[in-house]
Design a protein that fits this description.
It comes from Paenibacillus catalpae. The chain has about 290 residues and is mainly α. The protein is built from 14 helices and two strands, in the order αββααααααααααααα. Strands 1-2 form a two-stranded antiparallel sheet.
C-alpha cells in the first residue's frame, strides 16, 4: 500500500511516523504532567480526596511569604559556590591531562571513576569519612595536630559546604571529561602559531582555549546551576535536613510538604516556583555569558 504512494508522500509519512512516537511520549510524560502540576498548584488537595478545591494564588502567596519555605533556597548557595570551584578545577585538570603527561590515561580514569558510583552509595561512604568520633577525616586531622572532633555534618554554619564538597569529588571528573573532549577538538596548529608569535601559557589559555571551549563552559555552568537548585540525595541520606533544618534544600521541602503533610497543592506551587527559578537563573546566565559576544 505504501509503495503505491509517490516518493515525496512516502518520505513525509515515514518521517511523521518516526516523529509521532517520541512526540507522544514527550506529551504524555513531560508536558501533560507539567500542565497538571500547574493546575494542582491552584488547588487545596491532600493527595487522596477526589475533590480539589480551587483557591487561586493562595499557595503562591504562602510560598513567597513564608520564610520557612522560600528561605531554604539560601542553603543551595553552598552547592552553587562549590560548583563554580569544581568547574575551575575541572578545566585545570583537563588542560593538564590533555598534555603529554606520563600516565595521563590512568589519571583520567582515576578522576572519572567517582562519577559512575551510585549517589546513595557515595553518601553512605562519606558518612564514615565525616563521622565525628570515628571518621577518617577527623582521624587524619588529629594525626596532623589540627583537631579531631569537628562535627562536619552537625554544624549548621558549614554543613552545606561539607555536603557540597562531596558533589565536588563526585562530579569534577565528569566535567573534566567534557572539557577534555572540547580541548581535543581545538587544532594544535593554533597553539603552535601562538608559540611562534611568543605567546605564553596564560595568553594561549585566554585567547585560544577559552574562546574555543566557551560553549562547553556555558553547558557545564548550566548543569552546575540546575544541580545546585535541585540537589536532594546527599542531604536526604546524610543529614535528613539537619541539624535543625540547616541543610534542608528546596526539593526536600517540596517532598516533605507533599508526602509528610499531605499538602499536594502547596507542593505543586513550590515545584512550579522551582521550575520558574531554574528558567530565570539560566536565562540570566545565558544573557550575561553571551553579552557582547553575539
Amino acid at each position: 500500500m505504501l509503495s503505491r504512494l509517490p516518493f515525496g508522500t512516502q518520505k513525509k509519512l515515514i518521517i511523521g511516523l518516526f516523529v509521532a512516537l517520541p512526540l507522544l511520549l514527550l506529551l504524555t510524560f513531560s508536558y501533560y504532567p507539567a500542565l497538571e502540576l500547574i493546575r494542582l498548584s491552584f488547588t487545596n488537595w491532600d493527595g487522596m480526596s477526589p475533590d480539589k478545591e480551587w483557591i487561586g494564588l493562595q499557595n503562591y502567596k504562602e510560598v513567597f511569604s513564608n520564610p520557612e519555605i522560600f528561605g531554604v533556597f539560601k542553603h543551595n548557595i553552598a552547592y552553587f559556590v562549590v560548583g563554580i570551584v569544581q568547574n575551575i578545577a575541572a578545566i585545570y585538570f583537563a588542560i593538564v591531562l590533555n598534555s603529554r603527561l606520563k600516565g595521563r590515561y590512568f589519571f583520567r580514569l582515576l578522576l572519572f571513576l567517582p562519577y559512575i558510583l551510585n549517589g546513595v552509595a557515595v553518601a553512605y561512604l562519606f558518612g564514615y569519612v565525616f563521622d565525628t568520633t570515628e571518621g577518617s577525616l577527623n582521624y587524619m586531622l588529629g594525626k596532623l595536630g589540627l583537631g579531631s572532633e569537628t562535627s562536619w555534618l552537625g554544624t549548621g554554619s558549614f554543613v552545606n559546604y561539607t555536603l557540597a564538597s562531596i558533589g565536588f569529588w563526585r562530579f569534577m571528573g565528569f566535567n573534566m571529561v567534557i572539557y577534555l573532549a572540547a580541548l581535543q577538538s581545538i587544532p594544535s596548529d593554533l597553539y603552535e602559531a601562538a608559540s611562534i608569535d611568543g605567546a605564553n601559557n596564560w595568553q594561549k589559555f585566554r585567547f585560544i582555549t577559552v574562546p574555543n571551549i566557551y560553549k562547553i563552559i556555558e553547558l557545564n555552568l548550566f548543569l552546575t546551576v540546575t544541580g545546585a537548585l535541585e540537589v536532594f540525595d546527599l542531604p536526604f541520606v546524610l543529614t535528613n535536613g539537619g541539624p535543625a533544618g540547616a541543610s534542608q534544600t528546596f526539593v526536600m521541602k517540596i517532598l516533605d510538604t507533599a508526602f509528610q503533610f499531605n499538602n499536594y497543592g502547596l507542593a505543586s506551587a513550590m515545584s512550579v516556583v522551582l521550575l520558574a527559578g531554574v528558567v530565570l537563573v539560566l536565562s540570566l546566565q545565558r544573557y550575561f555569558l553571551n553579552k557582547g559576544r553575539d
